[in-house]
Amino acid sequence: xxxxxxxxxxxxxxxxxxxxxxxxxxxxxxxxxxxxxxxxxxxxxxxxxxxxxxxxxxxxxxxxxxxxxxxxxxxxxxxxxxxxxxxxxxxxxxxxxxxxxxxxxxxxxxxxxxxxxxxxxxxxxxxxxxxxxxxxxxxxxxxxxxxxxxxxxxxxxxxxxxxxxxxxxxxxxxxxxxxxxxxxxxxxxxxxxxxxxxxxxxxxxxxxxxxxxxxxxxxxxxxxxxxxxxxxxxxxxxxxxxxxxxxxxxxxxxxxxxxxxxxxxx
Length: 266
Fold this sequence. Notes:
7 helices, 266 residues, alpha/beta, three-stranded antiparallel beta sheet, seven-stranded mixed beta sheet, single chain, globular
């Protein structure tokens, strides 16, 4: 496979996820129309102009864990790019993401922590290490020797776990951190703007670039979450709005009072 310089890569098994990838890629094209985009899938697509390449594989995926393993197996080794921005299919682009490839001039990969994932990594001895997993739904990475070893170890680790327990409750993210603990890859922790899990409370101080999650009103969420894109703000999912904070001013004090009243429903 000829490897191009850089691009965005999706992995989708099943028509539902292929359709999601197309919607996500459409949102990306509106913001970064010149970026190359490729898709790996288990089924053919009708004529389309979203993807530079569509890579077909004949693999059967019948459940959630098989779908996660399908992702882990292909997201790195099947990418046609030297520098890749991999994104899950349930994503929506809201701001320019091309600058992310510059990060890969200095680091092997970059991704966002997953603070709500409590499946901690575990040593062979059985001891749990209290470091949160990283969210593998958005990953910037280089193709290089360090990452070859890292992603191979991740695939081996997760495959072994599913061989022992096909109904494993922890996602692929725990296995990724366990592989990373043995790796020489240099990791940069991306800020939450790169992978905004908008179903949870989040703090932002710059424009959100990628929304990650399911919503029938994703465009409205994109507008609300970036309504004050250069301000320090907290996204409150049940309010579907951001609370902007201005420290050390009377507005900050009033903002806290207003925020508490909103939480209490008064």
